[in-house]
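Show me a record, fold above all:
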Amino acid sequence: MMTIANGIQGRFICPHPTQPDCKVASKIELRVNEHGVIDTLIDAPNTVVDDMVWIPGFVDTHVHYPQHRVRAQSSGALLPWLEQTVFPEEAKFVSPAYAAQVAQEFCDALLKHGTTCAQVFSSSDEIATDQLFETLHAKGLRAQAGLTLMDQGAPDALCVSAPHAEKAIRRLVKKWHQADHDRLRFVITPRFALSCSPELLRLAGNLSEALDLPVQTHLSENLDEIEAVRQMFPDHSDYLNVYEGFNLAHERTIFAHTIHLSDAEWSRLEHNQCAISHCPDSNNFLGSGQFPWRKATQFNVRIGLGSDVGAGRTYAIRKVASSAYDVALAGQSRKTPAALLWHATRGGALAVNRSEVGCLAPGFECDLVGLHVEGAAHMSDDALFDAILFRDEVRVQSAFVRGKQVFGRAG
């Protein structure tokens, strides 16, 4: 892999370390040390500013590898879509050859759109999950992924018993968790409460605690889903309380969607230090509802953006940010493009507990994407943010993880 050996000069978008905002720095030179860590970011007054713009790598906080080939298939709302489209496709991943081919396609799609870090739902098959990790490792992506846990509410081919799941998880954790100096991580992954028996949820929570593993799952995406959870778990006060009851709602947990939460649930998300993956394109495509930006910002909860392929129709997180802009505006809670680019980069990194990336400053690992933005050399800062979010002709030209090129070319 090529590295940023001699530095990169140009125009950089620099997210704030903790606040949802980005600034533009022009005529800057970035240098990276031998460990892939940013060493210096200094003025370079003789730099010619052109249509190349550099931004920290995009972070996809919620995406499904085994749905790559069925993305954007319109078979209804969440529950019928799972039954008619997703489950038949995911059953194919018992074939190692099929799983390996899709893993290549999936990772290439992430990189093509500038995603350098992803949190991934894998198959429920151990071999397919191992192949996903092999491909993530070979492609140089920063990622955390997990065996999707299901033992009910799905075809038999997709269901894995708790004892079998525990053995598979322990093998995968031993091989892949914190591999390559923590570039890869294993994450405990119950599909959602409906797919898991109390025994499997209990196992998931116990392993997260015992092995210090992150957790990812779905929460309050669809009204029919919420009612089904209420009927299945009548002793729990609400959907979030199901996860709380099995020790699956903590500072290493990220919940996808969270559209229909009560005020009490929002308050407990904050108290438990959980994070959220906002998936606006998927929410629109399945008719699930609109994420309540106004409500969410009343609480101190980390928010990243997720493509949620395959209900999501694009891997491009900058386009997901554009959808998030529309959702916020419709909910009378306008978000600036600069703020949404922060959620697409640094905010996403914080949501998946990757504090080492998402900022362009000395001491941060250099995950970097080069965007060709037509006319960028003559744009104001605000116009540049608008172009990145809203224009079709923006092109990802190159991507680096820890200063090593993983896509495209440097110039």
In short: The chain is about 35% helix and 20% strand. The chain has two domains: 8-56+357-408, 58-351.
